Every structure is written in C-alpha cells, then in structure tokens.
Amino acid sequence: MILSLQERERAFGLILIIPTFLFVVIFSLYPIIYSFYLSFHRIILGLPGLGQKFVGFQNYIDLFHDRIALHSMFNTLAFVFVSTLCEIILGLIIALVIHQQFKGRGAVRAAVLVPWAIPTVVASQMWRFLFNDKYGLINFAFFGSDITAYRAWLADPFFAFCAIIFADVWKTSSFAALLILAGLQTIPDELYKAAKIDGASGWQRFTHITLPLIKPALLIALLFRTMDALRIFDLVFVMTQGGPADSTNVLQFYGYKKIFAEGLMGYGSTISVFVFLITLIISIFYIKAIGSRLIEEKT
After folding, report:
1. C-alpha to C-alpha distance for 161 and 134, rounded to whole angstroms
2. For 41, 125, 143, 203, which has the most beta carbons within 10 A of its beta carbon?
C-alpha cells in the first residue's frame, strides 16, 4: 500500500507525538486519576489490614467541616490573590524598565532573573535566615544593634504570613517580568513614534498602546503565577511549617501533613483533588473571561 505525501506526513507527526502523549499520561494523567480514586476511599498508611474502604463523598464532606482545612483554604486564596497581584504589578514595572535602551541592559536583565533561577528551597532557607529573631538581617536593618527591640517575625501570625508572601514575590516577580517583556518586544516602535508626533503623553502611550497590546502576555503571566501560587508548599514547609498556630497553613501543606504525619492517605488525596479542581476552575475562568475578550478585540 502506497501512502500519499500528506498521509506520510500525518503518520510521521503521530509518531513524534506518541512519546510526549505517553509521558503526559504516565506522569500527569495517571496520578490525577489515582488521586481521585484515593479521595473516595478511607486509607490509613501503616495499617494495610484495614483495606481501602470506599466511603463515597465522605472525605469531601469532612473537608468542608474541617476548621483547619477551611482556614488553610482561606490562607491559600489570600496568598494567591496578594502574591499574584504584587508579582504582576512588580513584573510589569521591571519589564518596562529593562525594555528601555540603556548601557548595561543585558547585565541588568540577567541580574533580574537571578531570584527566579534560585531553587525555591534555597530561597526559602535564605529568607528564613533573614527573618530570624536573633541574628536575622531584617531585625538588624530595622533596629541596628539594639537586640532588645528585635522581633520574632516568623512567630507572629500576621508577619509570618507576610514574610511568605514577600519571599514569593521576591523570587517569582522576575518570571512575570520575563513573560511581559516578551510581549513588549512585539510592539512596533513606529506606534510610539506616531503617537509621540501626535502629542500623546507617556501615560497616554502606555494606556492606549502598551497596555492593550501586552494583554496576551499579561494573561499568560497571570495564569502561570496563579496556578503556581495555588500549589505553594516549599516556602511554607521551610519557613514556618504552617505555624504559628496554623496561621500560615495552606491546603497543599495541610494535605502533606494529613498523608505523611497522620497517615490519612484518602483524606490527604481529597485535599490535593480539591486544589486541582480550584486550579482548573480558575484557569478556565481566566481563559474564558479574559482570553475571549482578547479574541473579540482582535476580530
């Protein structure tokens, strides 16, 4: 049987796709499906004799009656909103600055990306040291050598939560800036020159040219940062362990404690599934609400 050129190209394309498809199925789709399965069962690690009792939606019902889980949910959503908002705004400012022509721009761009390149666990340990109540540089910057005035930042519920947000914004704003910078570089300089000739101010050029044309880049940055913020774990694990008094507990860390500290595999999987569903719903909302507007504007 002789295949046409189009059929051979299609077959070759399928051959190239198969390895990636298998990778996604094995390492992404299967864990999600298995987590759903576990969430409908009561499984206790270390007690295999109890089996895997099917409990239906009982784990989900327990989740919405769990005071710590609800508080962790609130902390997660608050962290996502504040950190993502700060990162997008700061990322936009950084992108606008490093997009300008100036001497040493390449070195500045490289330096901006350094926080993002640092592993999160390393960055978390660094900020934990900076916020230390005895020898942290944050205390020294505010109070100098007056050690009697030093504060235990990570022992205060409000400041501990702010410290986690600050550390995340410091680390990931450069990633948002990189995505927005890619959008800025697609805008033709002729548009700015024409607007300047017509007497448009800098603010008018920003609001009528820059902002509308980088909306796709802003959407991508917003989507990526929201999804990443929803699965925050390592910052909390290293800096506060969810304390003090569960004030910095987030859903992912709470699920981790339920599985590995208490052995509640089914309930911990329920928390993971719930985080996945929240991420999916927010992602669909972004794409439908914001992405559809971008398509309408282009058409």
Report:
1. 19
2. 41
Short-list 273, 276, 250, 269, CA closest to 70: 250
Beta bridge partners of 41: 54
Q: Where are the domains of the chain?
A: 66-298
Mean pLDDT of all residues belonging to the chain: 88
Among 94, 72, 91, 104, which residue's Cα sits nearest to residue 168? 91
CA angle centred on 9, ends 7 and 10, rounded to 5°: 65
Tell whether pTM > 0.90.
no
Q: Around Cβ 84, how many Cβ atoms within 10 Å?
A: 24
What's the token pair of residue 153?
């930042």
| Strands 41-42 and 53-54, bridge-based pairing | antiparallel
The tens digit of pLDDT for each residue in 265-294 reads 899 999 999 999 998 898 888 878 766 655
pLDDT tens-place string over residues 151-207: 899 999 999 999 999 999 999 999 999 999 999 999 988 988 898 888 888 889 898
55's tokens: 């409990």
Q: How many residues does the chain have?
A: 299
| Cβ-based neighbour number of residue 212 at 10 Å | 11
220: closest CA among 278, 290, 281? 290
Sole residue written with tokens 């997660």: 76
Name the residue type at position 25.
Answer: V
Q: What type of residue sits at position 73?
A: M
In the CATH scheme, what architecture does the domain 66-298 have?
Answer: Orthogonal Bundle (1.10)
